[in-house]
Write a structure and sequence with these properties.
globular
Length: 277
């Protein structure tokens, strides 16, 4: 009998510890329909884990959606799934020349990052790819990255700045060294001034706790995002950790408004973005 009581006590403690110690509604706005994460799998995963999703389409040079017509076709198809927010990931810096303001405005929200840019020598960097990242001097590269981040946040019509504080592989293991308080504050100030929310990214586990606390103190808003590459990603545990450690609540998170859309005329979509695969 004693062992039964012990088992029940341990089960109770495990149950308490497994529950998130916060009341923030979990909305992951950075989900991509990629590889084996089809729309049907996204529905199942979202329901099973109790996390609401925003499905984001990659739009830009060399990405699945490159024209206004493809945006409208994609949005018409996605209108069949009103449980999801529908987002636009604006890729690179060319996206504003590729899509009309009318087409962009059809999404529930728009986000971008500073992972693609042209440096002072005219080289197009994609800093998640070693072969496409040029670092002549690490401190100069860092200053340029901060400057680019501020420029993007201040000038591009986005709602969320995602993958914030991401560093290329060569520098990533010295995150705290490169991301000084002064550099962090520049990005935070730009986001606050432009009413752009800052993503807490689960996949890369960025930004740091220090950054989040500084951003909260400055009045920044946040979102949760994963930036998955397939269906094998966990619930947003990193975001939950930051919520608890930094004292965040629902009032600290930005939530998009769902746009009214015309019901889809067809259950198929020819845009190769993973939505209907």
């Amino acid at each position: 009998m004693r062992s039964l009581y012990l088992f029940l006590a341990l089960a109770f403690l495990w149950s308490c510890n497994s529950q998130p110690s916060h009341n923030v509604e979990l909305i992951d706005l950075h989900i991509h329909l990629k590889e084996d994460l089809t729309i049907d799998e996204a529905i199942k995963k979202s329901d099973a884990e109790g996390v609401r999703y925003g499905i984001a389409a990659n739009c830009g040079l060399g990405f699945p959606i490159q024209t206004n017509d493809e945006i409208f076709e994609y949005l018409e198809y996605m209108s069949q799934f009103p449980q999801f927010y529908i987002g636009m990931q604006a890729e690179g810096r060319e996206w504003l020349e590729m899509f009309s303001s009318e087409a962009i405005a059809q999404f529930d929200y728009v986000f971008t990052d500073a992972m693609t840019f042209t440096d002072s020598k005219g080289r197009r960097n994609r800093i998640w790819i070693d072969e496409e990242t040029w670092i002549d001097d690490e401190q100069q590269f860092m200053d340029y990255l901060v400057e680019t981040s501020v420029k993007i946040i201040s000038n591009e019509p986005i709602d969320i700045f995602v993958n914030p504080t991401y560093l290329p592989a060569q520098m990533a293991d010295r995150y705290d060294y490169f991301w000084t308080e002064a550099r962090m504050q520049k990005v935070i100030d730009a986001a606050v001034a432009s009413d752009v929310a800052i993503e807490i990214n689960n996949r890369f586990m960025i930004p740091s706790e220090k950054f989040v606390k500084m951003a909260k103190a400055s009045g920044a808003m946040f979102t949760i995002g994963t930036n998955n590459i397939d269906k094998n990603f966990p619930p947003p545990h990193f975001a939950e950790e930051m919520i608890v450690k930094c004292g965040l609540d629902n009032s600290d998170f930005w939530t998009p408004e769902m746009k009214k859309r015309t019901a889809a005329k067809s259950s198929n979509c020819s845009v190769r973005c993973g939505a209907c695969s």
